[in-house]
Amino acid sequence: MTTQPQENQNNLPAEKQNAMVTRVAERVQSMVESNQINIPENYSIVNAVQAAYFKLTEVDFKKKTSLIDSATRESVAFSLQDMAIQALSVAKNQGYFIVYGDKMQFTRSYHGTQAVIKRMSGVKDIWANVIWKGEKFEVEYNQRGQLAFKSHEVDWKAATGIKEDIEGAYCIIERDDGVQFLTVMTIEEIKTSWSQSSMATVQNKYPQEMAKRTVINRAAKAFINTSDDSDLFIGAINRTTENEFENERREINPEYEVKKNANTESLDIKPEIIESPKAEKNPEIKQEKEPEPVGTATAEDDAPPF
């Protein structure tokens, strides 16, 4: 009697992968129809999810596999869902997918964060700039006692692109009523934030853009967690912000993974499409150390994941 080889837990046939992607799009569309989330009229859930799927199925010739075959189907589905709930697109460099071990995560670029913040209730605009050595940057306290932007004398020659020449960065969020909120970070604060992240290579290669990304994420926190927008929308925003800091949180708090998984909403996807990996079914199989990143999928292979 011939024994058929067992199917790779992370390697589904193309038709089942397509079924999973379709199910994710349908799930997010049902959230829209039930008024759980609001999606911009010009955002196509199906097109965005399908574009992400095509990117995930591209084979990395160095690793001889695609990202979608490197991760569990459940983590792929949740990553696609988080992207769609925020109405983001990898085709517009608004986010990217990265695999740790066998778990895929979606992380926003700073362009994506700006797009998300502009979607929030009461927000008109958001922007950020880097402060270079030799430039004059001034702030003041306004009538409400809040730190406010005063002036920034820019020297375009000072923008060398070298990390050591950055003194800080700032972000301004403007509400519909014209009120502006300023967030400023020194380079020391930015580096402290970077030290908790799993993106050291990108930070060193593109410090200017990553400094903007860091200060935008900090500025966005107050608006995100005090917003009256949908809990599903806010939850997706917070998850994708926190993804890059998960390694640090696991080391500090062993219960983090348990709490994180407990707060994850079910996708209600059929078992034949998404199954738990063997390692999760067998408690004797344990991972001894934090997995290294397997790879990253961006809109373009040579595009930095901002």
Automatic annotation (TrEMBL):
<feature type="compositionally biased region" description="Basic and acidic residues">
    <location>
        <begin position="246"/>
        <end position="292"/>
    </location>
</feature>
<protein>
    <submittedName>
        <fullName>Recombination protein RecT</fullName>
    </submittedName>
</protein>
<feature type="region of interest" description="Disordered">
    <location>
        <begin position="243"/>
        <end position="306"/>
    </location>
</feature>
<dbReference type="Pfam" id="PF03837">
    <property type="entry name" value="RecT"/>
</dbReference>
<dbReference type="InterPro" id="IPR018330">
    <property type="entry name" value="RecT_fam"/>
</dbReference>
